Amino acid sequence: MTYLSKILREPTQGRLSFWCPGCRQSHEVQHGAGAGPRWGWNGDAERPTFSPSVLVRSGHYVQGYDGGVCWCDFNAELKTKGEEPSGFSCEVCHTFVTDGRIQYLSDCTHALAGQTVPMVEFPEEWR
Predict the structure, then answer these.
(1) Contact status, residue 9 vs residue 122, Cβ threshold 8 Å
(2) Are 112 and 12 in contact (CB under 8 A)?
(3) pTM
(4) H-state helical runs in the chain
(5) What is the spatial distance between Cα 58 and Cα 91, in angstroms, rounded to a whole number?
(6) E strand or H helix at 76, and its extent?
(7) pLDDT by residue for the chain (127 residues), tens digit each?
(8) Mapping DSSP to helix (H, G, I), strand (E, B) and coil, where does residue 115 land?
């Protein structure tokens, strides 16, 4: 893993990772030549811009979800047993990352939907 800056990492060549304060986890995009979806990157590790938008879905929001057990169901079952939720959830995070700022679109399912915030450093436990 290469640490490009306090806010941007390159886990493997052609992949960039940044911390999402809305989801409280990292998101990754692929850039440059290669197979699979690719994003444009302005090459700036301090004030990155990715294009097009970054869309991350989990749980029952994943395209093609077949209706099986999702994180919502799993966590609800844990609660009925008096146990703590797993820490995973079903979410949509849809953003534009421009000049080191994250614009959360209205289809996000977390508390930062509709807001724009500066990119942040990875939490201490992720460094």
Answers:
(1) yes
(2) no
(3) 0.85
(4) 71-80
(5) 5
(6) helix 71-80
(7) 899 999 999 999 999 999 999 999 999 999 999 899 999 999 999 999 999 999 999 887 777 777 778 777 776 788 888 988 777 788 899 999 999 999 999 999 999 999 999 999 999 887 7
(8) coil
Query: What is the rounded distance in angstroms from the CA atom of residue 46 to the CA atom of residue 78?
Result: 41
**In the numeric block, which tokens belong to residue 56?**
């991350």
Burial class (CB in 10 A: 0-12, 13-18, 19+), 127: exposed
Q: How far is C-alpha 10 from the chain's CA centre? A: 15
One-letter identity of residue 30: Q
Please name which of 29, 32, 13 lies closest in space to residue 2, comparing C-alpha atoms: 13
In angstroms, the CA 88 to CA 99 distance is 29
